[in-house]
Design goal:
Strand content: 5-15%
Distance between the termini: 70 Å
Shape: globular
Structural class: alpha+beta
Number of strands: 14
Number of helices: 24
Strand order of the largest sheet: 5-8-11-10
Radius of gyration: 34 Å
């Protein structure tokens, strides 16, 4: 299955892709153009829906892996390579977790392949839900949580020293996984948080929970350029969706049937609800369930069962969405919290089940292979399994890039100067990433935002209307100065003037003269007082949360980078000290004994005190607390050395031709 991903994505590397592949590519282009025009911090975006806050759009990344690659590679290529990297991390995490559960290498590799080939991963990647990519690292997070548990007998200092690298690495990984994906923050937070709670309970320790909190704090500081404006804009422009109900029967259907279409009554299409493993693998899991229970550690098996049941219940959503008199479910309580209130498809929490299904499927396959001959009906069984599993991955990965909308490649569209004129184009949009340009916006873009309801007309005219009280209406000329600034030139008016612009309103707009507010149609409006002598007015957009967040990210990156270098350097120094060869001669209590002259057998006089190993085995045991030859106290030698140090020298100096003496002989 990993090979199927690799072949399909690399063979179609320059193709743009359809559905959300096109949308995610356009989001990366927006931040690329913004950073070229104004810098890394996100500000205003005049190219979608008549203008919106780029800083407040959570799906536009800043420091994600894909955004980093887009700065040096074509957008479609960078996004596909990022998908392959996250699939590799998912495979590696599942393999490492399986090995931690004492599964042999071949079986662990099968667990990893089934995990990245689960319908949840396949369906979301095929549809272009690249903001779900961070959730593929779930097994890796489970490994990190378990390494955060203090080992028996481990001191506090040693534990803190050992936990520093996983802490810094986890913070960086969480920042990369969540940048541009609020759904990844929620899903990983719930999945990993619940697992950390179970691990903490099982080991009676708070370290897994403390580790997870530390990771989130580090991630927020490292990626403050994305997290800070995300939080402030969520308060300024809240988005809420009504709770919904998703029957577990949909989960069972999409578990067995590789259908991506919408079923009647389902709250979403099949790609949102899919956990496809196929009827053959599902039957094998059911038949060999005893082998699955026996192969996994009891504590981990209970953890999978408890966490899987909790995510299943959470993904059902709200019973009250069906009838108000029904009792509340866990999602009803979470739906009131920030972030959860915007979730319209709670069944996305079912994605956690892909990991226990991978373990169960791999163990069941291994059990079936050891008990069933590959011939006759058994051969048909294996052929059906391979066709359903590999066929699902291959078909899903190829289809989005060979259609009319997915086949084209994106031409290079560089920003050569600050735009002074931006044209709004009406829909319908066929290929969003192909039609967007630094000076061309789309009024009908994908993924409409509910709070954007301004009256914006097609064309490049910035002034929508001018209203003057008790005076002639002045002529107003408007032009862009980049994306974050609008310059207005107008005649002097005796009375108050209100200028309604062809842009959406946002509280972060400011003016050099007059007041900026919201018109009844939700447009951006400038109100100038009576008798204003100003002939030129500038409106500028500045999101302070994005500016401050970028500074915090820079300082946090510098600080944690230096700490990481110091930690690695100190670790290398410690490792070098441990591996340093011992000094020649016998060193004890600060003394180094000089080499002793050799006797006729080639053994030093001091080494001869203890004799050879064969002598020790053949000589009667001496009295307690004395050496075998001299009856001197063990820890009371003249030079203050213990017998263990002497024995090490004896072993290294023993002649090769020593003969074994008869039992009872004494030198």
């Amino acid at each position: 299955m990993p090979a199927a991903y690799l072949l399909a994505l690399l063979a179609l590397l320059p193709c743009k892709g359809e559905s959300d592949w096109d949308q995610m590519t356009s989001f990366h282009l927006l931040e690329l153009w913004n950073s070229t025009l104004h810098g890394v911090d996100k500000q205003w975006n005049p190219l979608m829906f008549g203008g919106m806050s780029l800083a407040g759009d959570p799906q536009v990344p800043v420091f994600s892996l894909s955004m980093t690659l887009v700065r040096v590679l074509p957008a479609a290529v960078a996004v596909k390579l990022t998908v392959l990297v996250y699939l590799a991390l998912g495979w590696l995490g599942a393999f490492t977790l399986a090995r931690r559960f004492r599964l042999r290498r071949g079986l662990a590799a099968l667990v990893a392949a089934l995990f990245v080939g689960n319908g949840y991963v396949v369906a979301h990647v095929a549809h272009g839900h690249l903001d779900f990519l961070g959730t593929i690292t779930l097994p890796l997070w489970l490994v990190l949580v378990r390494t955060a548990v203090r080992r028996p007998g481990e001191g506090t200092g040693a534990y803190v020293w050992r936990a520093l690298l996983p802490l810094f690495g986890g913070g960086l990984l969480f920042a990369l996984c969540c940048d541009g994906a609020p759904i990844a923050v929620l899903l990983l937070g719930v999945w990993v948080g619940f697992d950390a709670l179970l691990v903490a309970w099982r080991h009676r320790a708070l370290s897994p929970l403390i580790y997870l909190v530390g990771v989130v704090v580090i991630a927020v500081l490292l990626d403050a350029a994305w997290f800070f404006p995300l939080a402030t804009n969520a308060l300024e422009c809240p988005r809420a969706r009504p709770p919904s109900f998703c029957s577990p029967l949909y989960l069972l259907f999409y578990l067995l049937v590789p259908l991506r279409d919408h079923l009647p009554g389902a709250p979403a299409s099949g790609h949102e609800l899919c956990l496809f493993v196929g009827p053959v693998l599902a039957w094998l899991i059911l038949r060999h369930r005893a082998a699955v229970r026996a192969a996994l550690p009891p504590g981990e098996l209970r953890g999978f069962a408890i966490a899987g049941g909790a995510m299943l219940l959470l993904g059902i959503g709200s019973l009250r969405a069906c009838a108000a008199w029904l009792p509340p479910l866990p999602f009803d309580l979470l739906h009131a919290l920030p972030g959860f209130v915007a979730i319209g498809i709670p069944a996305r929490f079912w994605g956690y089940l892909g990991l226990p299904l991978a373990f169960a499927g791999a163990i069941a396959l291994d059990r079936a292979a050891s008990t069933r001959a590959v011939r006759g009906r058994g051969r048909l069984l294996w052929l059906a399994l391979v066709a359903l599993t590999l066929g699902n991955v291959a078909y899903s990965m190829v289809r989005p890039f060979v259609s009319r909308r997915g086949w084209p490649s994106l031409p290079a569209c560089a920003v050569r100067a600050l735009p002074t004129r931006i044209e709004n184009v009406a829909g319908p949009v066929d290929n969003q990433a192909l039609e967007l340009a630094p000076n061309r916006g789309l009024l009908d873009a994908y993924n409409h935002h509910e709070h954007l309801t301004a009256d914006v007309a097609p064309g490049s005219e910035l002034v929508r209307s001018v209203v003057a009280d008790d005076c002639p209406v002045p002529q107003v000329l408007a032009s862009w100065r980049g994306w974050n600034s609008i310059v207005l030139e107008l005649e002097r008016a005796a009375g108050p003037v209100a200028i309604v612009l062809n842009q959406c309103h946002h509280p972060c707009w400011r003016s050099s003269a007059g007041a900026v507010d919201r018109s009844p149609s939700n447009n951006l409006r400038l109100s100038l007082p009576a008798g204003s002598a100003t002939r030129q007015v500038e409106l500028s957009f500045r999101d302070e949360a994005a500016v401050i967040g970028l500074q915090v990210s820079r300082w946090a990156g510098l600080t944690f980078g230096l700490l990481l270098i110091l930690r690695l350097a100190a670790g290398s120094l410690r490792a070098g000290q441990r591996s340093r060869p011992p000094a020649t001669g016998l060193a004890c209590s600060g003394k180094v004994l000089p080499p002793m002259p050799l006797n006729h057998s080639g053994v030093s006089a001091r080494a001869g005190l203890a004799g050879s190993a064969n002598d020790t085995a053949a000589t009667p045991a001496p009295s307690a607390g004395t050496t075998a030859a001299t009856n001197e106290p063990v820890g009371d030698s003249q030079d203050g050395c213990s017998s263990s140090g002497v024995q090490s020298i004896v072993s290294s100096a023993k002649p090769t031709n020593t003969k074994t003496r008869p039992s009872g002989s004494v030198r």
